[in-house]
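Practice problem: predict the structure.
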Amino acid sequence: MHKGRLEAFSDGVIAIIITIMVLELKIPAGHDLEALVEVGPRFCAYLLSFVMLGIYWNNHHHMLQAADHVSGGVLWANLHLLFWLSLLPFGTEWLGETHSAALPTAFYGVLLLLSALAYYVLQLTIIHKQGEGSRLRAAIGRDLKGKLSPLCYATAIPLAFASPLAADAIYVFVALIWLVPDRRIESKIH
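Answer:
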C-alpha cells in the first residue's frame, strides 16, 4: 500500500487537532492588560501544545519519507499515535484552565509520554516492515532525543505533584530539544 493516503490523513487529523485547540482559546473578558494576563496560562498551554504537535507533524513527515510503502500494522500504529495526539486539546484545556495545577500537569505529561511511546511504536513498525537494511533504522541511529524524551516525561509526571512548574519546565525543555528539525532522515534519504 502506498504511503500517500496515510500522510494525507495524518496531516488532516493534526490540522483538526490544532484547530480544536485554537477554538478553545477564550477572548479576554476585558480590554486591559489584567484581562490579557488572566488568559496567559491558557495561551501558554496552547503554545506548548501547538509546538509539540508541530514537532510531531514535522518528524512524522520525515519518518514517512523513509518508508516506501505501508502495511496494515503501520496504519494501526499510526492511528495509535493519532489517538494520543487527539487528546492533547483536552489536556491543554485542563492544564491552562487550572493554571498548571498538579493533577492536570501530570495528566498532560501522561499524554505526552503516551504520544512519544506511540511514535516509537510507529517507528518500530515501519522499521519492521522495511526488514533488513531499513533506511529508517539507518537514519535514526542511536536516537538519543527519542530515548531522552520519554525519560523526561516519566520524570516530570510524578514531579508535577511536588512542583507543577518544574514539570512544565521539563515539557518545555523536551520541546526545545526537538525544535531543531531532525536532519538524520533527510541525509539518508537524499
